[in-house]
Structures are given as structure tokens and as C-alpha cells.
Amino acid sequence: MSENDAWDDWETAADTGLADFKKPETPKTTSINKQNKEDANAKLWKQANEYSTPTIIRTDTIQTQYQPEIKILKRSNDAPRGHLKGTSTGTAQTKSLVDREKDYLLARKRIFGDQSTSGHSNNTR
């Protein structure tokens, strides 16, 4: 810092009057100026909100547009109706409750091993 420069120290700048900053005065707006600004803003918003559909110009007019072939599909008359997928026509028999529990216990033994069957009882319902 130089000793003679008033800008180096804010106290020196304040003493010499360099720090006195006056806000520039803004001209007072009249109602006519205010109305003109409001009209200009309204016009700008109106232009911004207008929607116009863009025009698409194709440059590849040689190429034809793809149109899919329409086919009406129909099932044959000999196809079974009303059956669920994966079931046979009347050969499946329903198992009794005892058979289903037996199959369940076998599957559980296969998955978890022998130790898991000890905690399971058939009478817990």
C-alpha cells in the first residue's frame, strides 16, 4: 500500500470524500410511461403464448410411406374353446386333502431337508 493513495484505506477514503456514493436519481415514471410499458408487456406475452403449428417439409419424397398389411385372423373350428392353457381335457383328477398334504410335506422335505419337518404339524390351522 502506498501512503498517498486514499483508495488503500477505507478510513482515508471516507475522510477525503471518495467513499461518498450517491445513488443516481431515477426519473419518475409518469402514468403514460407506465401504461406504455404495460401495453408493451401485454403484447409481448400475447405473442409468446400464441401457438402456431409448424410446417413439416419432407425432403425424401422419392421414398414411399410404409403401410402395414391388414390381415384378419380367425381360429380354426377344431380348436378347443374355454379351456385354460396347460390343462388337459378332463384327464386331470382333483387330489384329496390328505394327498395334497402328503405332496406338500414331500416337497418341503426336498427343499428344506429333514430338520424343517419337525416344526411343522398337520393340526395347526
From TrEMBL:
Residues 86-96 have a biased composition (Polar residues). Residues 52-116 form the SUZ domain. This is SUZ domain-containing protein. Residues 1-41, 74-98 are annotated as: Disordered. It comes from the Eukaryota. PROSITE patterns: SUZ. Pfam families: SUZ. Residues 1-12 have a biased composition (Acidic residues).
